[in-house]
């Protein structure tokens, strides 16, 4: 709350955010909610509008401000899918807490309607009517590095301390999110079976799962565990800081992000992030022919709609359909060229 003083000035906003915290929402989610609502309430203050009585037009002013806001790296940086400095996903993210806040006000009896609204379908006699959201939603596939970019990254990473190398290996092997990786504890490991436990409280959707890791990662992990005893012999958080200021303390999310960013810049792969290894792992599983539900279980996805993006990114289904279709067409064309006898024999397979 201290980070966003405008929330403290609004009793309803403070109560709403505290309710989400009491429900156990992840710190990152709370921070995103707080930021989005704080920006909206700050605009209401500038426009001298009471949020309790604000209408769709006032929310529209907020949307206009978001869609015209320049990128933090300069006004010349424009996101293609939004046409503005902010990416479409970022604009949608800013609107979510505003919509949820008005849902809360409605339940509290302080409002009768939500000025943000939702994208939804309404059945009718002449088909379904689609109510559009305030901002068109674009769904982009995750970015993954090319083979050359990945090799460049590994070339840089192999000169890193063993802690950073094993973290990168586990992040890929088990498709771990940043918080899942940094929250691993020594008792989450089962070296005998080369598996690790991802505890429910560290996951995005509160689903616990057990993930395997490869033999090369097992070797790295054994080396790191030996090295870890020189930092601390206490059981607990697996990855520890080795800096002078925080020596022996659990490695923070932000420190790991800085490590990955440094590696990305050194390898010339600027788009690499802490989530890229997860995207790459799940795409590789799709390329290897894993079934959709198996990938969803491995990733800890509650809904397979999220998993489908990796099937699309791998191009597996389209490649198989294209191959089977082209084989049939090629066979028919060869039969036509070979002569009338063979073309009659294959006429049943493809008619003009």
Automatic annotation (TrEMBL):
Domain of life: Bacteria
Keyword DNA-binding attached: yes
Residues of the Tyr recombinase domain: 140-323
Keywords tagged on the record: DNA recombination, DNA-binding
Gene3D superfamilies linked: 1.10.150.130, Intergrase catalytic core
InterPro entries reported for this sequence: CB (IPR044068), DNA_brk_join_enz (IPR011010), Integrase-like_cat_sf (IPR013762), Integrase_catalytic (IPR002104), Integrase_recombinase_N (IPR010998), Tyrosine_recombinase_XerCD (IPR050090)
Domain Core-binding (CB), chain residue ranges per copy: 11-106
Record's protein name: Site-specific integrase
UniProt organism field: Streptomyces lanatus
Lineage, broadest ranks: Bacteria, Bacillati, Actinomycetota, Actinomycetes, Kitasatosporales
